[in-house]
Amino acid sequence: MTSNGDAPRPSYEQAREELAEIVRKLEAGGATLEESLALWERGEALAAICQQWLDGAKQRLEAAQPEPGDS
């Protein structure tokens, strides 16, 4: 899966770190409106990537758990 055309999807840790950096930049202020909007859009994309990773991990954990009644 790709996040923006031909770039590979970052790992969860990479996406989370980049998202944290974007939050720091936005909180610091000083960016133009256009820059802020671009950062916000990238942050939204990264948040979606993180959620996909978390959803996938949850599904894997649920699949690994035994069904109720199984021994």
Summary, kept brief:
Helix content is 69%, strand content 7%. It is mainly alpha-helical. The protein has one domain.
Descriptive notes:
It is a single chain. The protein has 71 residues and is mainly alpha-helical. The protein has one domain. It has two helices and two strands, in the order E-E-H-H. It has helices at 12-28, 33-64; strands at residues 2-4, 7-8. A two-stranded antiparallel sheet has the order 1-2. Strand 1 (2-4) and strand 2 form a beta hairpin. Helix 1 (12-28) runs antiparallel to helix 2 (33-64). The N and C termini lie far apart (37 Å). The mean pLDDT is 90.
Summary tags:
71 residues, mainly alpha, two-stranded antiparallel sheet
N-to-C span: 37 Å
Gyration radius (Cα, Å) is 17 Å
- Shape annotation: elongated
Strand line-up in the sheet with most strands: 1-2
Q: What class, by secondary structure content? A: mainly alpha
Helix content: 55-70%
Domain tally = 1
Number of DSSP strand runs:
2
Q: What's the tally of helices?
A: 2
Largest sheet: 2 strands, antiparallel
Low-confidence stretches: none
Order of helices and strands: EEHH
Q: How would you state the average pLDDT, rounded?
A: 90
Strand content: 5-15%
